[in-house]
Write a structure and sequence with these properties.
- With 378 residues, the protein is of the alpha/beta class.
- The protein is built from 9 helices and 17 strands.
- The strands form 3 sheets. Strands 1, 2, 8, 9, 10, 11 and 17 form a 7-stranded mixed β-sheet that branches.
- Helix 1 packs parallel to helix 4.
- The longest helix has 18 residues.
- The structure holds flavin-adenine dinucleotide.
- The site of flavin-adenine dinucleotide has 29 residues, from helix 1, strand 2, strand 3, strand 16 and helix 4.
Amino acid sequence: MTHQTQEYDVVIAGGGLAGRSLACFLSREPALTGARILIVDDAGDPYPHRSLIYWHDDALPLPLTPEAAFTSLAVDAGAAPRVLPLRRHRLCLTSSRAVFRCLDDVIDGNPRITRLDARVARVRARAGSAEVVLSDGRRLTASHCFDSSLPPTGITAPLLMSGEVRRVRTAHDAFDPSTATFIDFRSGARHPVHFHCVLPISAREAVVEVTRIVPGTAPDAGFSFDRATSAYLRTVWGVSRYSSVSVERGSIPLGVRPGPARGRHVRIGSPSGVVKATTGYGFTRILRQTRHIASTLASTGSPETPRPSPRFRWYDRPVLRMWERDPELAVEFMRAAFTAGDADLVLDFLDERTTFAQERGLLGSMPVRMLLQPRLWT
Ligand SMILES: Cc1cc2nc3c(=O)[nH]c(=O)nc-3n(C[C@H](O)[C@H](O)[C@H](O)COP(=O)(O)OP(=O)(O)OC[C@H]3O[C@@H](n4cnc5c(N)ncnc54)[C@H](O)[C@@H]3O)c2cc1C
C-alpha cells in the first residue's frame, strides 16, 4: 500500500515534556505564526502523573503554580542535617499533569498545530527537509523534525537513577513544611547505597523520594524501595505509622551523550542528553533548550541546539565514575560538596550556569582531591 506524503513546517516526534514545550514556545514566536506544526505522540494518556521537582531563580517561562515551594534546604552533613537558606532560588514541587495543562493552554490556542496519535518508526534527514516514517507506513515531510521519541531499543546509558516517589500521610505532625530535605543518606550511606529527599506539603503530608544510582547494565534487582522508605521514616523522622496516598516508580538514564547533529533532524529532550548527567534533573533544562531552539528558528530560520559545555562534562565524569565504581565514596563526596558552600551557587553549578571564576571558588571549597584519583579517570 502506498501513502501520500504530508508536508509540514515542523514535525515534533514525541509530545511529552520536550515536544510540548517546543510547540508552546514556537506558538509564542510572532515570526512563526503561519507555521504548520504537527505533534506525533503514541502515549495513550495525554496527562500522565509524575511528580516533578525543580528549582529556578528566574521567571519560569510558564504560568505554573507549584504545589510546594521552599527557600530552605536541609542537606545531610554526616551526623546531622544542615539547613541552608536559598537566597535566590526556590525548590519546587509540581506534577507533569500541571505542566502539560499549562503547555496545552498555549498549544490548543494555535489553530496551526495538529496532533497525531501515532508511533514514529524513523526519521531521516534529507537535503533541505526531514522525512518522518510512521509505524503504519505513512510518511511525513517537514522543514525540520524535532525528535524526543525513544529509539526502539530505548536509551542506553552508563548509569540509571532509579527510585520511588511516595506521598505519605501521618496521623500526627511530623514534617516541617518550611524546609525541604534535599539529599539525605542517613539511612542508606552503606551498601546498597541509597538516599532520600523529603518535600513536605504540610506538617502531616510529604512527598518522600528514595533513589539509587546503579550501573545501566545491571539495574537493581531485589532492592525494596518501600522497605527503605519505611526504615528511613522510622529511624530518621520517628514516623512508624503512615498511609501512602500514591506511589510512583521510574528510572532516569544518566550520562546520555548527545548524538551527532543530523541537519534538519534535531534531537530534543532526554534522547538529546539534556537531562543533567549527575542529578537526573531535566525539567528546567528542557524548558531552556526548547525555548532557545524556538527563538533561533524564528530569528534565523536555522534552529540552534545549546551544546553541552565540555567543562561540565569534565566535572561530571569522575562523579559518574564514583557512582559506578565506589558509591560509598560518592556519598562522602556528595555530603561534603553540598555543605561546602553557598547553596544557591551549588544549584547554579548543578544547572551548568556558573562561570569559570565561580567554579574555581566552589571547587576550592569541595574535597576536589577525591575527584582527582586516577581510577576515576580511566
Ligand atoms: C521517572 C522519572 C522522573 C523524573 N523526575 C524529574 C524531576 O523530578 N525533575 C526534573 O527536572 N526532571 C525529572 N526527570 C527528567 C526529565 O525532566 C523527564 O524525563 C522529562 O519527561 C523528559 O522529557 P522528554 O520530552 O524527553 O520525554 P517524555 O516527557 O517522556 O516525552 C517523550 C514522549 O515521546 C513519546 N514517544 C516515545 N517514543 C515514541 C515514538 N516512537 N513515537 C511516538 N511517540 C513516542 C512518549 O510517549 C512520550 O509522550 C524525570 C525522568 C524520569 C524518567
